[in-house]
Specification:
With about 425 residues, the protein is of the alpha+beta class. It is about 30% helix and about 20% strand. It folds into two domains: about 260 residues, FAD/NAD(P)-binding domain (3-Layer(bba) Sandwich), CATH 3.50.50.60; about 100 residues, no CATH class. The termini are far apart. The structure holds flavin-adenine dinucleotide.
Length: about 425
Amino acid sequence: MTNALTVDLAVIGGGVAGCMAAVAAAREGARVVLVERYGFLGGNATAGAVAQFNSWQTAAGRRVVAGLADEVVARLRAVGAAGPHEVFTMSTGHRMDRVVYAPERLKWVLDRLLLDAGVQPLLHAQVAAVQAAGRRVESLSVLCKSGLVELRPRVLADASGDLDALQRAGARFLPLAEGEALQPATMMFRFGPVDFERFDAIAAPERAALARRGHAQGELARAALHAARDPGSDDAWFNISRLAVDATDAWALSRAEIEGRDQAWRAAQFLQREVPGCERGTLRAFGTQIGIRETRRVEGDHVLGADDLLRPAAFADAIAAGAYPIDIHPAQGGGLQYRELGDDHAYAIPWRCLLPTTLDNALALGRGVSATHEAQAAIRVMTISMAVGHAAGIGAALACAGGRDGAVRGIDIRALQRRLREQGAILH
Ligand SMILES: Cc1cc2nc3c(=O)[nH]c(=O)nc-3n(C[C@H](O)[C@H](O)[C@H](O)COP(=O)(O)OP(=O)(O)OC[C@H]3O[C@@H](n4cnc5c(N)ncnc54)[C@H](O)[C@@H]3O)c2cc1C
């Protein structure tokens, strides 16, 4: 092994959660390396081409996510790569708010954000092994173009979505309950040109009927015509395919990538033939990979449950807030299980959800935080993932400040909350 590097924080995974954690920690003065398996950042936001940041506010219009997430949107808008904040009705009839963005240009925006903050990215790099002694992560072996690189972090933050590093460190994960299944994955695809005047004018009942017909004909894996316009173009990213897969199983993942492209291909034919405004369009691009909604969820000091969201629970160690409803895409069939929240309903996420029960100097963030299948179906969205990442970065920096050893349970929660508020974050 060559090139051992000692750092305050090693962030594994450059999705939106990992990027926010890395930036937030580096701005607090921590030495941060971010390890990402692709040659670019963004995860589901870019490689998965999700193309819209959903749920910034309650249905009544109260903001619940801001801070670093706002800065990402401001930087996107400055280069014409994000639309205005909009409230809209989904093709399933549900109300939602969002900011659409251009996935390709988000890659560059995240590059600049990380470099400006002083983060050291290690791209084309995957965690091969994690060495832990008892409850402490000592080092990581990262496989990259130079061979194996060893990282010795005081804090390990696993933002890989699948929590590969924590799995290799021997952390425990939460099982699915009886009758639950992992949420399916989706191969997003870019389709255009779309005549948006006509496409957007399709009335909701007609849109729903079209989607049901496409599903009944076997051309749409999901009974929806959900699309986000790519800003500055006549194209949209369509979210129609549906793949039941455990994406931590390499063979199943391989099959799902191929099946995903085929589902997208068939959906594009349906759009072209049957959907007003899409007649001149063709499939222009697939996502780099299928978008993954759910895999491992860590067992943390607190397991966020649906009740915590629905009551909602007040947590003394709240570090982020959200208002996205419980949105479960069933693994099979064309529908959606959707539990809408009340008009001004928001919930909080406590710091303890980031703390793996069996490790002292590690954090889980993004879609793998400690939550039940139901609660994860709400807090997995990118707005909340960014808010949690923001908190994780400052928390990790506090755990290393003044020569501390990276113990993430010992941090001053009030100092973390204060710092987050100073940076515009909303905690409940
Ligand atoms: C199809 C789909 C539609 C969605 N729609 C919306 C929506 O409309 N609005 C919304 O806000 N959210 C939406 N979501 C949810 C949201 O996109 C994700 O939950 C969120 O992006 C998760 O971010 P993350 O940073 O936790 O993980 P990810 O985005 O999964 O990022 C993980 C990163 O880690 C890297 N990585 C993985 N393993 C390793 C490893 N071993 N070593 C190194 N790097 C590794 C990956 O390449 C990736 O960059 C959707 C998700 C999907 C899949």
